[in-house]
Every structure is written in structure tokens, then in C-alpha cells.
Design a protein that fits this description.
- There is one protein chain.
- By secondary structure, this protein is of the alpha/beta class.
- Helices cover 51% and strands 13% of the residues.
- The protein contains 14 helices and 8 strands.
- The chain has an 8-stranded mixed β-sheet, with helices on both faces.
- Helix 4 links the parallel strand 4 and strand 5.
- The chain is globular and about 75 Å long.
Amino acid sequence: MKLGMIGLGRMGANMAQRLQQGGHQVTGFDPDADARKALQARGATAADSLRALVAALPAPRVLWMMVPSGRITDDTVDALLPLLAKGDTVIDGGNSNYKDTLRRAARYADKGLGYVDCGTSGGVWGLAEGYSMMIGGDEAVVGMLTPIFQTLAPSRDKGWGRVGPVGAGHFTKMVHNGIEYGLMQAYAEGFSILQHKKEFDLDLHQIGEIWRYGSVVRSWLLELTTDALGRNPTMQGVAPYVVDSGEGRWTVDAAIELGVPAPVITLALMERFRSRDTDSFSDKLLASMRNEFGGHAIKKE
């Protein structure tokens, strides 16, 4: 199958390479000329504009977008709309909000265009290990795209599937990332407790290696955590500042809308916010409260 790839960041370029290795022909576009050159070095073809990309593909066209969520996705969708013809399909493989996906898909459906949302997990390891893909869209359209998903997945029949109609893929990936927040926070807190027990002089990398085999808390995330501890046991040079991509927020929003209790995911998100508050007014106020009612000493800056 011949398809177009839009967005040649590290993950997009890796996906293009895996598709090429699987026998598909990939033509890619990115506004960055260096990214286009890098794609060509991997054996794929590069186009210097969206118009040129669309023109290079046989009808019915299939285009996979790997661009950041938000305005850039809207701009790309808008730019493609007049270039495509009835029967063409766009796959959004980025981390779009499922509500935005529903809005975009409705516009494409009005023009007879297919729109598929593919929540994609695997990160920088996907080239070698394959990608986990949660797909939303019309059943017939997704069926037509099966060879693409089989090539990108860890194996032809594992790690991917149509989970529901359009929007369902990004919704499922959103919750996946919310769960990821909670898992990461639990590992971070657990290892922090171990690290603070100074009299035992615990080797956190060793403990992580032990847990990786046979333990009920073993996981790929634990493997990555253990690798990080092996390289930098004290986390020297790493700032205690944790960003969020937005999907944790969307998961908490969905939990509130649906009336579903999600305290672990919500607190994990709050902890990320807390990591960025280097001059916490609330903590200063708490110290002042203790001083007011109990005469407890205030630590000065």
C-alpha cells in the first residue's frame, strides 16, 4: 500500500521507516527541510508541500498525520480538506482530544472523506517493538486500512484493534495516558520511600531489577524506570519539574463529566502541577497558619 505521512518528528519518522520495512511505500511531508532529508535517508520519499504530497498518492488516498494536538492539527486538517477527493482517508495518529476528533470527522464526512483516529502508544521504542494502536472509525474504512495497522503493530494480530466509532480511539488513548500518570506516580513515590531509608543504603537499581521478574508490579514502565536508575541512581542534574501533555487533564475532565471517581489519576495530575510550583504560596500560607494557632516556628527563606 502507498500512503502519505504528515509530520516527521522522531515518532512519525520511525513509523514511516517501519511501514517501509513492511513493504509499504511512504511519501512524507514536514515543513522542516531537515526532517524531509532525514526521511529520505531512511529510504522513503519526501514531498515539499501538502499539495505535492497529495498529488504523489494514488486514489483513494490514505494520509497518516503525526502532528501535535491542538491548533496545528486543525490547521493541517483545514489545509488538506480542499486537496482531497471523495473516498480519501485521513488517519490522526497523534494525541488529539476526542472531542476535537469528533468535530473534525464530522466535517470530513460531509465531504465524503474518511476520518480515522488512532491512539498510538510505543514512543521511541515503536520502531523496534511495534506500536499499540487503539483505533476509532467506520468499520469498513478501518478494515481497508488493516495492512497498515498490522505492519505497525507488535504482531499482525496483537497490540491493535478497532475499539469503536470515530472518537473512540483517542478517547481510549486518553484514558490509557491517565492510567500511565497513576502508574508513574506510584513507582516514583515507592522508590522515593526506599531512597529516604538511608540506614539501609538500598540500591534502587538492584531492587528494580528484582521486581522486574516474578513480581506483581513488574511492567515495561518498571523496566524503563530501572534502566534510568542504573544510569543515574541519584537523579543528579534532573530538575524536579514534570510536564503534562494534556491527556491526564482530559481524563480527569471525562471522569468528572461521567461521574466516575478517579482519585489516583487526579492526584497524579495534581502532583505534576505541584512539581512546577517552585515558590508555593499555599505552603507558605500553611506554615503561617501553624504559627498562628500553635506558635510553631516558621522557617525563613
